[in-house]
Specification:
Rossmann fold, 374 residues, 10 helices, 27% helix, EC 2.1.1.174, 20 strands, DNA_methylase_N6_adenine_CS, globular, 7-stranded mixed β-sheet, alpha/beta, S-adenosyl-L-methionine, nucleic acid binding, Ribosomal RNA large subunit methyltransferase G
């Protein structure tokens, strides 16, 4: 893999989660452009630089030791990548303070480097939270590959930060530079809320939650076919999002014990709040993590999963396949993984390579619900 070479550092970087013969690198031309632009401004060692949505630590690891850098984002895997890449390049794993997107930031910041996220609601929430946290004369510099840079990103910077100008394109990347000015404090439109009829619950959704405005059609297809009569089963909602699968299952299975896991801190925050609203003080484990990577082997009876088919801008089944492997490892013999997936993704044949029995529980014209038994 090529090294990231900028005026700040020369780094050997890896993506998360790691895979053999990784076809993609852990940085791109937008990372290089952001760092080159910042270097031209010659920030002092005391400059406070906030990095938002650093994919795998390329920005923060480059700046560590050169400025006072803080990293914030909504991805557990991104923070894991930052820690591993710091170690990989001879630095302490905790050399850069990391603040999950679900937690408040403490300024003032002289510069903010932003990787424009796929979900513009996350960008909007982050920019709103920057109000009152920027030093006089601060700039917010957002970068992306041009094909992933919507016009709305510039509109959000102008609305919440100040006047924006766009850079020239370099290696198919572009920067949007916003000069901070005094603004009337904005009220965040997040979290959003929507209600379900069955089960009759209201779901709260922080800014980066998948399908913030309403239930996604895959989950809608899954809900009527969640397993019942689970008794005191140990159940995990893998990639829990706002927690709807676990909550609906828990309402049907009052004795079961639940673990909700997602790599998005805002998803975990939403799931925890939704659980407590629907189920009060009923015990639950809700955590951000790399799927079931930290789960004890053979410690679960049931896993529920609506697997993702992309990581950031990259579409593929690598994450789903990895989740299936994690579920198999965590399940007891005889335990079952229940999933919903688009018909065309061919999950049945993938699951058959890992589990002793795979059956179709139900189907719609677009989705299948499958049960895979270990």
């Amino acid at each position: 893999m090529p090294l990231l070479e900028t005026p700040f550092a020369r780094l050997d970087l890896i993506r998360q989660p790691e895979q053999q013969n990784e076809p993609l690198q852990a940085f791109d031309a937008a990372d290089e452009y952001l760092l080159t632009f910042l270097a031209e401004q010659q920030p002092g060692a005391d400059s406070r630089v906030l990095v938002l949505n650093d994919s795998f630590g390329a920005l923060a690891a480059s700046l560590q030791g050169k400025v006072r850098v803080i990293s914030s984002g909504d991805s557990f895997l991104a923070f894991q990548g930052l820690e591993k890449n710091l170690i990989r390049n001879g630095q302490a794993f905790d050399a850069v303070p990391s603040v999950p997107a679900s937690e408040a930031l403490t300024g003032p910041f002289d510069r903010v480097l932003v990787r424009v996220p796929k979900t513009l609601a996350l960008l909007e929430e982050q920019l709103i939270r920057l109000q009152g946290q920027l030093a006089p004369g601060a700039q917010v510099i957002a970068g992306a590959m041009i094909k992933h840079l919507p016009r709305a990103a510039g509109d959000l910077l102008e609305r919440y930060i100040g006047p924006v100008h766009a850079s020239l394109a370099v290696k198919k990347a572009r920067l949007l530079i916003a000069d901070a000015e005094a603004k009337v404090p904005a009220v965040s439109p997040y979290p959003t809320r929507y209600r379900l009829d069955e089960p009759a619950i209201e779901l709260l959704n922080h800014a980066n939650v998948f399908c913030r405005e309403g239930l996604d059609i895959g989950t809608r297809a899954f809900l009527p076919h969640l397993p019942g009569n689970l008794g005191a089963a140990r159940v995990a909602d893998l990639g829990c999002g706002n927690g709807v699968l676990a909550i609906a299952s828990a309402l049907q299975n009052p004795q079961a014990l639940y673990t909700l896991v997602d790599e998005s801190y805002m998803a975990v925050q939403s799931a925890a709040e939704n659980w407590h609203k629907a189920l009060g003080d009923r015990p639950v484990t809700v955590r951000a993590g790399d799927g079931l990577a930290g789960q004890e082997p053979q410690s679960l009876d049931v896993v529920l999963c609506n697997p993702p088919f992309h990581q950031q801008q990259v579409v593929g089944d690598f994450l789903a396949w990895r989740m299936f492997q994690q579920a198999r490892e965590a399940l007891v013999v005889g335990g079952a993984l229940y999933i919903v997936g688009n018909r065309h993704l061919g999950y049945h044949s993938k699951l058959a390579r890992l589990f002793r029995g795979v059956e179709q529980v139900a189907a719609t014209p677009k989705f299948v619900i499958l049960k895979a038994r270990k």
